[in-house]
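worker-03 picked up job from queue 'complexes'. Input manifest follows; three sequence lines, order preserved.
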Amino acid sequence: MTAALSVHEISVSLPGPGGLIRVVDQVSLNLERGEMVGLAGESGCGKSMLALAIMGLLRGDKGHVEAKSVALGHHEAGPSSSHGMVDHRGKRIAMVFQEPTTALDPVFTVGWQISAVLRRRFNLDRAAARDRTLESLSDIGFSDATDVYRAYPHQLSGGMRQLVMIAMATAVRPEVLIADEPTTALDVTTQQQAMAQLRALQRDAGTAVLLITHDIGLIAGSCSRIMIMYSGQIVESARYETLFQKPLHPYSAGLLAAVPRIGSATPVNGIAGHVAPLTEQRVGCRFAERCARAIPVCRETRPTLLDREGRMIACHHPL
Amino acid sequence: MRSGAYIFRKLVSAFALLIGVTFISFLLMVWFGPDLTYQSLGKNPTADQISEVRRQLGYDRPFMERYGAFLGQLATLDLGHSDSTGEPVSRLMARTLPVSLALVLPGFLIGNLLGILLGLWSAWQRGSMTDRFIMGASVAGMSLSFLVIIILLQVLLCTPWGLNLFPARGWSVDGLSAYLYYATVPTLSLVLITLGYNTRFYRSVMVEELNREHIRTALAYGKRTRAILFTHVLKNSLAPILTRLLFSIPIIVISGSLLLESYFGIPGIGKVTYDAITNGDQPVLKAVVSLTAVLFVLVQLAVDLAYRWVDPRVGPS
Amino acid sequence: MNRDPAFSRPHGPRSLMRGLFRTGAGISGFVIISGFALLAMATAAGAIGSEWWQTSAGAWQGPGAEHWFGTNRLGQDIFARAVYSTQTAFEVGILVTIASTLLGATLGGLAGWYSPGWLDESILWLKGVLDSIPFYLLIAAIAYAMQGSPWAMHLGMTAAFWTGTARLVRGEVIRLKEREFVAAARAIGLPGPLIIFRHVLPNTFNILLVQATLVFVAAIKTEVILSFLGIGTRDGISWGVMLAESSQEVLAGRFGNFLAASGFLFVLLMGFNLLSDAMQDELDIRGQTA
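worker-03 finished. Artifact:
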């Protein structure tokens, strides 16, 4: 069966002091219908850039995107195709952005903005769009959907705005939903509401969800698969339970070990060192200098993502 | 309560402005203005005749008294009669003001409308050849003197060395076709002169708007170019657009009409004012000054109201 | 986008120059202005165009080898007149720019520093009043009040142009007031005006520079219109005077005056506008055009 989203070797380059820098380096991934996949990594590893690149939202000056292929189901929509993602955005693919404060237009009401999106998506008239908008607002948990509908963004709190963005994305019922840190501004209960909404979308509409976050705990609750990203590359990808029980990449191990667990007596370890600035393009594995298991070949050749017993790993010296 | 105090402050500053404007106008046009003593006297006037005329014209009275009289006349709209032509000033204004408006408004509106459209387009295409061409043309437009454009257009459109389609001077408008006949060249000049400045201003406003995050959201949900530009960008830019429009009204109506009317021989308020200054025609000056001051104050108020109406973030929520 | 001048790259004069020369616009602007400035100085020194008032040649001669743009009604060489007018233009431009910048910076600085307060309110009031009086009326009135003095137009333009500069400087001073170096200066007890002039205003230098270019352009353009209205350059020659003459002449088919004056004027103004643009892009500043 065709994957809902399939990306082959997408790269994003930005102009830097010494030339072009690859902030996303030949990343490939697939999302099947109805699955929720987590993409984890520290801030600055390129997760958001990847999302924007897939969506086709990086304009010339914001980043140069190359890809072998980006396909939504059967439709080829990559940067080299004739229309790219333009026709699919807001219909087949939608995105929830990281920063809810400025993502909404301040001079229109929240309801108007969602309705406008739905009218385009489902070809509805004003009344029908309004009804659906109210429905989606109450589904996500607003008890006073009408008030929220009539409110302007600045009249809502940060958390409420983020819920609105999620409501907008789910109301579209896309085939693929990319959620970039969708719960940062939310408290624990609202977080659960939001995630419940995403899971409902998965279930009822068969939407494939790419959940981008640095919060492993969030992934634990809802994702069947997890991908780990470091410095512009995907270093490991596997089913969640598999990865959790036995991480292969030293970085993944470090990341999982750094999550505090209630009731566990194991001390929490950080990962020594910090992400090297991308301006220093070195040959070899980008994690090598922080890696306790680095061997000579690590500093010479960049490891590629290889299939190993049903999981993917990019490492010369895995655990 | 906040509204009340706010309105009061606005009124006070409006009043202070009016006082200031009238004071400076009085100072320049009346106190330092031309001495009209000898205009109504014949040859070899006697000392008595001179002092009589001076008394009539009020030249022998002290400063504050004359200023007070000036203000009083303004307040009661006692506009009197023109010193040079004897025509009642109110009739003069009623006759010339509509002419100036008819002359200047189309050019003002078109100049700004085109400026907004070009600004939107070049902002959307920023960095492209189109954008750079539009910007280059705008800079060229800004480097041309109003006078140069007027002369050029006149030669190209109103003389046998050009197309000779329109009159070089004059204004006898009795219907739409006559109006188009006389108003086209002045309107065109006004548009060309202001277009460069307008386009650059609107472009910079639009570019800033286009850089905002909510535009990315609109793109992410598939909104088309036209929708983005004409709903999101335009509505968010309304505040600076309206401010600019409203603040340029007094400038365009009075200063703009001054030059156009002097050049094309059109009997409007700009020309009348200019003549009044050079002839020291006080009643007319008083009328124009009060009109200007009131217009400016109204514009300030309009701008404040516009801000509240346009931006839901401003004002009581 | 952070517009705080102290956070952006420090722009001393040398780095500013380097930045300007990076763009075609900046270079051309600079070259044009320098060219004209040299021309102005040359005419002031009497090296070129000093025969602008001579009526030796016959009237209405067409363009030719001896008179590049022909001669005018009185038999004067139009090209020489246009060249000599460069001096007038620079004289008006420089005087008005310096005067209005000084006045605007001072009053704007004081207003911003003592904001909020009565001094600020008074200066704002003065600005409001001067802005509400239509520009040409103000200058015409001043010209008339000064009974035909040749400095009337300089004074009038200064009175009208300082407000734009003052508005910018006031805004900047209000922002800079919160900065640490000002708090430090205050802490060691330096008096207000000293802080303003020695420490705060130099930080507004870039803004003043941009504004100065815009004022220069406005001054030259205004002189043209004032001369046409008869209240600009009186004794002497300027492009405005030439254009005023030409307004009648073109109707009779004589284009020499018009072409010469408008040509020179256009090139110089383009030079200034290009330079101003390059400066604004480089320094990330927008000026105030009236």
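worker-03 released lock.
Residues 1-10 of chain C have pLDDT under 50 and may be disordered.
Chain C has eleven helices and no strands.
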